[in-house]
Write a structure and sequence with these properties.
Blueprint lengths: L22 H8 L26 E2 L9 H16 L8 H20 L12 E2 L25 H18 L3 H22 L10 H12 L11 H11 L6 H8 L4 H7 L14 H22 L7 H10 L9 H33 L6 H7 L2 H9 L1 H8 L2
Parallel strand pairs: 1-2
Amino acid sequence: MNVQAHNNAGNFAALNANPTDSTAFRTLALLPNIVNGDPNNFVPIFVAPGIADRWKWTNTVNTVVNSDATFRKAVTLEATMMLCYAGATVTAADVRMATYVAVLRTVMRHAWTLEMAEVENAQTLTITADHTEIDATTGNFVHAGPNNVNVADKRALFDRVDAEFAAKVDTIIPGLIRLATGVPLIVGTILVYSSGHHFVPQHKNIAVGLVRQVFGAQHVAEMDLPEDDFYDVVFHKAAHPLVTGWLVGQARNAAHRAGFTAMGLAAAIVRVPAKFAHERAGSAIIRLVTQVNTLGESNNVVLAAATITAAIEGTAIADGDNITPALITARADAYTQLEASNAADIGFCIGFYRAAIADTDAGAVRDTLLRSYAIRRLIQSEAASVAIGEAQ
C-alpha cells in the first residue's frame, strides 16, 4: 500500500492565543506541527481541568493590601464572593474553607506579584469592583452582584467570614501566610510528578513536609478542618486557577532554593527543581553509584562505576532546570541509552548495595533510595545481576 507523505506545510498554521481566550483554544495553540515540526521544539501540553464556580479566581478585590485593615478587607470580601456560589445552605466548614482560600490567594498575589496573565481565563469570575464596596453608613454592599445573592444575604455571609477571620487571625492565619508562599512550588512539583494532574493522594507526601514545618508534627488539630479537606484547600483549590505552565516553571526554577532556605521554608524546595521521570531516575542511579563507590572501598571491592557516573553527568540527565524542549528530549534519550548500555552494571550495584547495608541501621535513607521507581524496576528486570552483586 502506498502512503502519500503529508508534507504540505501550508495545511498547518501556527495559532496565537491570548490570555483571555478559552482554555480549549489556548490548549489547541500549544499543539505543534507533528509531521513537519522539529521535535526538539515541542513542549509539554499542560491542560488545566475545570473547577466549580465557587473556587474560581475572583478579580473582585482591588484593595491595596498595605495595612492590617486592608488585608482583612481583601480576604473577607474575596471569601464572601466565593460563598455567593456555594449554594442555598452555607455551612461553617464552607465559610472556613473560603476564608482559608482567600488568605492563601491574597498572600500569593502579594508575594508572587501575580497578574491576571498567570490565571486561567476560564477559571476566573469577573465581578466589577463596585460589587465589593460597602456603604460606610448602612454597612450594606453598594450593589447586589453576584445576581443570585441579594444584598442582605451577602452582608450576612460577609459577617460570617469576618468572624471566622477574627477567630483565626492570631492562630492559624499566620501559618497559612507562610504556607501560601510555598504553595506554587509544591503544586508545580506535584504537576511535574503526576504529568499534569493537580493534587492527587499519591503525591501528598510532597506537601506534608511544608505543612509540618509550618505547623509542627501534631498539626491536624489546629486546622479546624478534616485533614484531607485542609490539604485539598491549600494545595488544590487555592492554586488551581493559576496557569499550569507557570506553576511548573516555578517548580523547575532552582533559583528559588536560596530564597526559601533564607525564609526558613526549606521544605518547599526539597524537590526544586522538580524533575521529570527520566531526571529522577538519573538522580537515583547517581546516588546509588556514589554510595556503592564508598561501600566498595570500605569492603575492598573495586567497582567500575565511573562510566555510569560520567554518562549521567556528561548529559546532565539528572539536572532539573526550567523547561527547554531540546534538553528534555536529549535527556530522555540519554537516560534510555544509559539504561540500555549499563543495566547489568546498575543491577550489580543495586545488589551490592542491598547486601552491604543489610546489617546496618541505614533505615530511612536506605529505604528512600531503594524505593525509587527506577531502582525498583531494575531490581525486577536485572534480577540476575542483582543476585551477583548481593553475593559479593
